[in-house]
Amino acid sequence: MNEAVRNEAPRTYDVIVIGAGPVGENVADRARAAGLSTAIVERELLGGECSYWACDPSKALLRPVLARADARRVPGLRQAVDGPLDVDAVLAHRDKIASYWKDDSQVDWLESVSVDLIRGHGRLDGPKQVAVQTPEGDTVHLTARHAVALCTGTSTALPDIPGLGTVRPWTNREATSAGRVPGRLAVVGGGVVAVEMATAWQALGSQVTMLVRGDGLLERMEPFAGELVAEALREAGVDIRLKTSVASLARAGGAGGEVRIALADGGALAADEILFATGRAPRTADVGLENVGLTPGDWLAVDDTCRVTDVAGGWLYAVGDVSHRALLTHQGKYQARIAGAAIGARAKGEPVDDARWGAHVATADHAAVPQVVFTDPEVASVGLTTREAERTGRRIEVVDYDLARVAGAHLYADGYRGQARMLIDTDRGTVAGVTFVGSGVGELLHSATIAVTGEVPVERLWHAVPAFPTISEVWLRLLETYRDQQQPSRS
Ligand SMILES: Cc1cc2nc3c(=O)[nH]c(=O)nc-3n(C[C@H](O)[C@H](O)[C@H](O)COP(=O)(O)OP(=O)(O)OC[C@H]3O[C@@H](n4cnc5c(N)ncnc54)[C@H](O)[C@@H]3O)c2cc1C
Ligand SMILES: NC(=O)c1ccc[n+]([C@@H]2O[C@H](COP(=O)([O-])OP(=O)(O)OC[C@H]3O[C@@H](n4cnc5c(N)ncnc54)[C@H](O)[C@@H]3O)[C@@H](O)[C@H]2O)c1
Q1: CA–CA separation, 222 vs 435, rounded Å?
Q2: Which Pfam families does the entry link to (predicted)?
């Protein structure tokens, strides 16, 4: 509806959503679609972290890097893309993808779906009560008839390191919006943000040094993923230091000076900027959790309908990053569709379909969370990893295949490097997890997601014929490898 609800507007809604990131927007959309009057509260920009300081701008920075790397592996094309990236053009395109950090189009969309927007900082003020502190200094009090959904997302979790506050470290916000390429960039962390941003800024001209406390990259994924990404980052010129922790920080000579980094092993390093890519913290410190019996700063535990478990009355939902189920936009939006439908069903007294894979439960969060890491090579994974299968006691068989041996892969790129792993649940005869590493594998992932989510029997997968000569033929090779592992004498 309107840019800011005026004082005389009604203050009672069926549903109130706090936080208009991708997740909050989808909860509001689905609640409205269920026929419920809905308001959404946002203190910054509609679209949230994802649109302005995370997914969208980071992928805009990475796309030219990956396209150039791909082109350089195609004989006959290599010479045409020999030169450096046009940094100004890349940053200008990034700015456009981030909508120049303005949310006008999102406001228009919200209006088109008839959800009221209240600008300001929202806090729970008791059961079904929300108080919004507006930018003008007013407090708007709202009441929900049915539900309040907290969709306040996350911020960078900064470790407690002496001197950190004095060096103005980069977080995901600066790493995705900086208008200038630092000469030397130190990146702390070895997770997804760290590898993607190291890939982007190294290609844009920084000398990147990664300071990784563990003994590899992408530790939550199959080990070969981190190994292949590390190998390529090193070839691109990134200095990766494993088992390395930061002890203290200082910025020399005031604002414009270099960052001096003291390492725990006694070593030292200087950089122009330092990025902390050290995981996420929930934005729950100042949302009034104490007023409903919860602890400020905590992640919010929810059931599979996204309802907060520790609050009586079943009116409070937590959806997206803030619930810590899967810190990914697509998974948060999936939860939002589920939660919106569940809120609608409960409000109308209709049955809630909470059987496994039912319409009102986010079952995929447990079984099939897809993720693509946009590095060169890309990493695409869904479902279990070998380590998770071992931890949860699932009986699985591991099937590995060298992606470079697939015809489509060596047509795709000269010297293609990649790896595929499929986990077969041997009790059920279905695929429990898949990881692909290699150029262009991101677009392959949905086939795996469907196989895992659909619990497609391996026998039926033999009838899903991949087109020749595509990289998808890896599916056939994985099935053949699995068959040969079952019947070694007939191979
Ligand atoms: C660098 C980076 C790259 C990423 N890339 C990808 C990717 O490629 N693909 C992917 O799937 N995921 C990616 N992610 C993760 C993705 O950004 C998050 O999973 C997603 O943004 C979560 O959406 P959300 O709506 O839950 O939270 P957010 O996007 O954080 O939105 C929360 C909103 O709530 C608002 N808010 C908070 N508190 C209040 C309050 N008290 N009152 C009013 N409003 C409030 C905030 O201003 C914000 O607009 C990336 C993350 C990072 C850091
Ligand atoms: N393409 C994508 O899908 C994409 C891209 C970026 C981010 N994301 C999501 O955003 C979330 C956040 O990403 P992230 O990379 O910040 O988190 P992460 O959890 O993936 O990685 C955090 C890294 O920081 C390290 N670390 C944590 N605390 C530390 C400390 N005190 N000192 C040194 N190192 C420390 C960890 O060991 C790990 O290497 C992830 O869950 C990810 O799924 C997704």
Answers
A1: 7
A2: Pyr_redox_2, Pyr_redox_dim
Cα–chain center distance at 186: 22
Q: How many residues can be counted in the chain?
A: 491
Cα–Cα dist 46/173, whole Å: 16
Intrachain domains 11-47+103-155+282-364 and 377-485 with the same fold: no
- Count of helices and strands (H, E) across the chain: 15, 21
Instruction: Determine if ligand 1 sits within 6 Å of the CB of residue 54.
Output: yes
Pairing of strands 259-263, 121-124: unpaired
Of the candidates 176, 235, 227, which has an alpha carbon nearest to the alpha carbon of residue 208?
235
The finding on whether 193 has its CB within 6 A of some atom of ligand 2 is yes
CATH number of the 164-278 domain: 3.50.50.60
Q: What are phi and psi of 169, to 5 degrees?
A: -65, 150
Are 46 and 67 in contact by the 8 Å Cβ rule? The answer is: no
Contacting residues for 393 by C-beta, under 8 A, at least 6 apart? none
Ligand 2: centre distance to CA 188 (Å): 10
Judge if the beta carbon of residue 325 lies within 6 A of ligand 1: no
Cα gap 84→391, rounded to integer Å: 45
pLDDT digits (tens, 9 = 90+) for 25-75: 999 999 999 999 999 999 999 999 999 999 999 999 999 999 999 999 999
194 Cα to the center of ligand 2, angstroms: 7
Report the pLDDT averaged over residues 441-468. 98
**Ligand 1 neighbourhood includes 191 CB (under 6 angstroms):** no
- To the nearest 10°, the Cα dihedral for 22, 41, 117, 119? -110
50 close to ligand 1 (CB < 6 Angstrom): yes
Report the CATH architecture of 11-47+103-155+282-364: 3-Layer(bba) Sandwich (3.50)
Q: Collapsing DSSP states into helix, strand and coil, what is residue 14?
A: strand
Tell whether pTM > 0.90: yes
Q: Which fold has domain 377-485?
A: Enolase-like; domain 1 (3.30.390)
Question: Domain residues of the chain, as ranges?
Answer: 11-47+103-155+282-364, 164-278, 377-485
Among the atoms of ligand 1, which is closest to the Cα of residue 59?
Answer: 8
